[in-house]
């Protein structure tokens, strides 16, 4: 897997700032109520945002971009299939080729 930066520098700085804010908030909440597991989950999400900002790679953005490429390739393939040798009428009805037998 080739990991290339797919978010901008401003986006990375925003992710780092918000991630550290969330991480510090949940850490302070965990000090008061250490039995709450929901704070631990939110702390992991904040740490993930900090890591995304440092590396400048977001897996969800990469997945979305890959999905968009697949959709455009599929649309292009369907367009080229529709225009093959006039087998489809301009009204969208399928025309069968003439078979003399």
Secondary structure: elements and pairs:
Layout (H helix, E strand, L loop, with lengths): L8 H24 L4 H19 L3 H24 L19
Q: Descriptors for this entry?
A:
3 helices, mainly alpha, 101 residues, elongated
β-strand number: 0
Contiguous low-pLDDT stretches (5 residues minimum) are none
Distance between the termini: 55 Å
> Which series of helices and strands comes N to C?
HHH
Number of helices: 3
Task: Summarize it.
This protein has three helices and no strands. With 101 residues, the protein is mainly α.
Descriptive overview:
By secondary structure, the protein is mostly helical. Helix content is 66%, strand content 0%. It is built from 3 helices and no strands. Helix 1 packs antiparallel against helix 2. It is elongated and about 85 Å long. The protein starts with 8 loop residues before the first helix and ends in a 19-residue tail after the last helix. The mean pLDDT is 85.
């Amino acid at each position: 897997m080739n990991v290339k930066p797919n978010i901008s520098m401003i986006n990375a700085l925003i992710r780092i700032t918000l991630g550290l804010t969330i991480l510090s908030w949940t850490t302070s909440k965990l000090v008061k109520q250490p039995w709450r597991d929901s704070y631990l989950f939110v702390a992991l999400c904040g740490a993930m945002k900090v890591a995304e900002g440092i590396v400048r790679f977001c897996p969800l953005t990469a997945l979305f971009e890959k999905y968009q490429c697949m959709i455009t390739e599929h649309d292009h393939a369907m367009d080229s299939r529709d225009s093959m040798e006039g087998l489809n009428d301009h009204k969208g009805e399928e025309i069968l080729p003439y078979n003399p037998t």
